[in-house]
Prior knowledge:
The chain has 278 residues and is of the alpha/beta class.
Amino acid sequence: xxxxxxxxxxxxxxxxxxxxxxxxxxxxxxxxxxxxxxxxxxxxxxxxxxxxxxxxxxxxxxxxxxxxxxxxxxxxxxxxxxxxxxxxxxxxxxxxxxxxxxxxxxxxxxxxxxxxxxxxxxxxxxxxxxxxxxxxxxxxxxxxxxxxxxxxxxxxxxxxxxxxxxxxxxxxxxxxxxxxxxxxxxxxxxxxxxxxxxxxxxxxxxxxxxxxxxxxxxxxxxxxxxxxxxxxxxxxxxxxxxxxxxxxxxxxxxxxxxxxxxxxxxxxxxxxxxxxxx
Length: 278
């Protein structure tokens, strides 16, 4: 799916005085897909065709990300992101759902599931932050608040376009079209500053505080991981499966961190198989 096609799917509403962009498509049980950093809902673009045949997809841009609100001076923590998503689901009249989150979207998913376990049937974390495995070093550097005084929006976007192919095991998947669409919301001054603020909001305490609550859950959980993930190491997923009995782990050996881009069809089929299994 091309950038313009994805943008045409997006709708907008206002929650807590913040613009929230989101996609609703497909029919069937509801599946919430939560992106991470430095992406936006576009992360799931190649999964939509397959998944929408079996699910009603809800794909928000987290506030501060993509085409949701980019204004300065509001909290972008995973707690706020989870709360905004909860209110979006209320607005859409969604009562029960499946949940999947990638990267820090996995942290948002953890917060959401802890707070709304009664609404969630099953959930999947894809190359997710776990414990204190985050923020990754590039995000620590990006979160320096002084950075926005030293770099224009298009410069930051171009820097990512140059470096993001290194985040793919199959570099040929990181096409110019994909990367330009990926960075499009962040190529302005507002987008640049918003991305920097997003990175500055990453706080490992917000996952560590969930550990005891997560141990009280009995919901089926799948960890889906790129075997070559350089940002969220496989050992953290293995540790999680040891400490949370009943958690399944599926490793896609020849992939790096951005599984929904690099292995979209396989990701979609794994989600379908897990959510539709008895």
